[in-house]
Amino acid sequence: MAETLEQPLAAATVRPETIEKVSIVVSKGSLEGIYPGLIMANGARMEGIEANVFFTFFGLDAIRRGRQAKIKVATVGNPGMHVPTWLGAIPGMSAIATKMMQRQMEKLDIPPIREFVELISDSGAGLYACKASVDMFKLTEQDFVDQVDGVMTVGEFYALAGGGEIIFT
């Protein structure tokens, strides 16, 4: 009896040798919340992997007209900053941290968000806005940059992601 239980479990855990498709969820609207998803989507496309990016909640700022250039580093309550919360709350700290991070990214030839979104779209990745978030924030498709392929529900996102890996950043 133990043999028959082990065989189906072993067969169910067989994975393909390579990843062929990824769907990346971007939910945070800070610089350090948006870039990981963009970097992963770009890396996937560079490796020939199909990639789709689903922007939800404040992650929508990455694809909203007029918001892309205003995205900052979150300094308050960000354990990665390694500074006390009160220090991150000092006026101007977020702007200083943002400038420092942008300089570091420029040195590494990482483009600004607007250019990165264009690059990823041009590479063939799909860019989608979450319908629930769009409705919640009372947005329309006209609020988004031209590279956005559409607004979709979570169910539609799951259908699009079928057969691939889902990455939540």
Automatic annotation (TrEMBL):
Highest taxon of source: Bacteria
InterPro entries listed in its UniProt record: DsrE2-like, DsrEFH-like
Record Pfam families: DrsE_2
SUPFAM superfamilies: DsrEFH-like
UniProt name for this protein: Peroxiredoxin family protein
